[in-house]
Amino acid sequence: MRRNRSSKGSVSSYGVSLAVFVLSAIVLYQLHAGHSLTSRQNGRRTLPRADLVRVRPILANEHYYHNRPSLASQLTTPTRKDATTAHAVAKAASIRNDVSELVAIDEIIKSPNDLRDFRLVQLENGLEVLLVSDMEADSSAAAMAIKCGSWCDPKEVPGLAHFLEHMLFLGTKKYPSENDFASYLNEHGGQDNAYTASTDTVFFFNIDAEHLKGGLDRFAQFFISPLFNPSATDREINAIDSEHKQYLQSDSRRLFELIKRLANQEHPFTQFATGDKSTLLREDIREYLNKFYEKYYSANQMRLTIVGREPVDTLEQWAKEIFTEVPNRNVPSPTFPVEGSVFPQSGQKQEMKVLPISEDNSVLLIWPTKVNPDKLYRESPSGLINYYLGNELEKSLISTLRDKDWVYSLGGNFYVSSDDLNIYTLGIDLTDEGVKHMDEVIKSIYEYLGLIREKGIEKNTYDELVALRESDFRFKEKGDPTDLASGLAGRLLEDRDPSDLLDPPSRLRWAPEYTHQLLNDISPRNMSVLLLSKLPFENGEIKETDVKTEKWYGTQYTQEKLNDKRISKWESAFESGWKKSKLKLPPKNPYITKNFGLIQTPLSPQERQSVQARDANGLWNPPEPALVSNDSSLTLWHSNDAIKEFPVPRAQCYTIMRSTRAPDAEEYVKTDFYLDMVGEKITEKLQAAGYAGYHVTFSNAHRAFVAAAMGWSENLKLLLQESLDLLKSAELSETRFQSIKEDTMKTYDNFFKQQPYSIGRYYLNLATMPDYFAIEDLKEAAMKTKFKDVIDFIPTYFSSEFSQETFVHGNVDVEEGKSWAKLFREKLQPTNLNATISTPNQQQLQYDIGKGKSWTIIEKLKNPEEKNSATIVNIQLGDRGEMSVSDLAKINLLGFMIGEPAFDELRTKQQLGYIVSAATDQAFNTFTLQVLVQGAEHSAEYYDGQIEKFLISNFPDFLNSVSDEQFEKYKGSLEQAYLRRDLNLQERSRRYWDPIAKQLYDFNWRASRIEALRELKKDDLLNFYKEKVTDPKTRRRLSVRMVSESEVDRKVTAYPVESVPIDDIKQFRSGLSQFSA
Q: pTM of the entire structure?
């Protein structure tokens, strides 16, 4: 899937819950949807913000990526993306074939806060290009979208579109080296990626701004003269096959494949989209590749976006020089005609019971509809429905079903949208009790849908949501240029007016007839039900003879027709049941912001460029936050200078309350239970604030309680105050506690069914991190914790000795910031608040595994069906206390340089596995180098040996081969990364908050790091690498091998690794000392 270079949980206060099975592995799709995501990062729920304008369905049109994964990209939670990418993967109803009349368009509707210039042009070859000039950009980007996806695959070669996407990265006539593009980007601070969706494929990259033109020239060759070398073809089939095997245990992938069984089997929606060896390993595959490429990859079916800091005139000239050579074959837009209905009667009113890998219970309701949200993007037919279904306030559908202990969360959206196939879905996470009452859950859903149909399609509610969108759009800030480029390239494939490309709310249209049409289509007689649960398979409800097995993922399931008695009951609920129901629609939102005044005078564009200019040494550092209070009860930092640069009436308030108390597993679990229960209460009471643009989280962090509040400055204090009131005094329910406890136990049971590399990271942390709890200990603690235990514990928690440190940032003055900070003391009333507590030392340092030591953790995977093995090699480079500024620069440069050579050697050449990454990392205040390989072809021991060979031999050879000129380029790109300016107010907040939270306070560390970087020579890095990584007398090496039961006959190591096995991790850790501060 993705091609990248590069604490236990927060309680989300506001948002719309979606079924966990919908959001598990397919969370990657959400990256292109424009949702604002926050999580209870224990894997149970992800809460997206409601949006009036339709966003891309979570499960819609499965994407298959050309993956260059890194540890960071694989393990981090998705963050909010630029709102202009809200339809980045939306599928077009049709494409503009006749673009000959298109002229340069500069008047694209944009936010008043957007200083960038936009221009839409057409080249002589028919290629449509959107140019975005951002004179402040430090990083540039480009993306190409092609109107060809997995639905275009020949029936006899499933996965061909995805395979072609991979192959275009592996050499062109002008740049024949397989990794030329990747190496060029790596030298110049860039990354690349691509994905294959159902009806389109999108390629994109970013790069340091001054090297955009060279990146564009290499990128353009993908679409002019790819090589499709035979050797690369054979190897990349292995990569595709490995990618497929990575997800054999993914419930969301398995469910996706089963949903296809309900559609007309002649429609390409039903085809296997990923591909594997069985579909691609054929003698004529290169012939198929060439024919497929020539049939679909034509300039008239492509759309390009370029984001650079050059003027639009220059960008336009570059586009003409570089991309006019893309051949225009004048091919028509792909169509997918089939005889009969795409979603026939035989695929409706069906019930599937699916045996999952996880312990979770979920049900997915599916309705085919004639409503095409892509064509109706201005009317947003599902907008109000999704808003109401996401409502979690008191008397809402979710709140009512939670009170009965039947559901955890639910949410609706379009699953597929195209000219001939549109599917709306509603996903529900069920408790065990909810599985027993599934029909009643569906009945309640239809009562609520009936209420929406009769009472909810109102202009005043629509206007309220549009007003919220208008506020967001008015003060829209810049986001990542790669997201912007890939999003807009995909959107150009839609049949949109150019004025609509940036989603201006002024272009939305009130058209309730389409919402009513959709509600009529989601009737019980048009519905199919897919239950994902082990319970029916374990309680004898299902006969073994009725179980079927899906071909590609081996999923076991049953299928039968829904009987008329059940359907009639749901019909009655839909038509009239809502009249007797106690369910309520949300009231008028009381948190809508009206005061958008700024406390600082915004800079003019010219003044802004001056403020953001670098000094004579090329350095740029914004003003540091001010320490405005440092007394016995509070340390307060404040800054509002950024409002001059980012003129938005928003603010952030971060607070960390540190404790000297080292909690045991029981205390940790009790705190989590409490925060989970309070989180639901906050959502139930205050969710409307989330829709209005506010966000609050409370987190159980490492020996600390952490709170974050952000949003419009006008009402942020009020929201923080109300949230803290609920945190301290919410009326909690034992019923909800039992439900959350059940959910938590399932989370622990599911933990060892994750990807092997994720489990490997857990064992690595268990061996090296202080206060890190074993899953077994947490599970045991959760099992015996009772509701009363939690209620009795919390007062003692807040009576611990705390130090409070707060950072208030944005559109708020100092005195107001002080009042915000004091809320924590006033509301939580900690009995022992002592600002003199200092905790950066022993709490934030890893265990030192010892100089000259090499250890290995070997663990068998507990999921017998998992075919992948994984190995992580972790080299401890040292702690911050022993590192000079020069050493820190070396670590950064090492991480900057090692990723691409590792990927090229271990993935591209050796084909060890689909997931390969190498990067430096910082855990607590300890720095490490980590190399990861996961695959299904070799043993974990073999991976360990090949990683060792790469570290000892391949990478040193690479470093020695780097010329002085190339080395300076790497240094220059890293310097550009240091110098990269903040894109928005939130990024500036993170720049400040990170050193405060870590108690480092080195706000302008980049300046000293750059000075040290400029002095580095290649020999300095080689000597550092030798001491820390290759010299057996001085390095600290720990590898973790996750061993699949399937690897019995796989190749063992060909390169020796001398290490001592760790039989008991806890005992091993007890014999270590932490790094000294």
A: 0.89
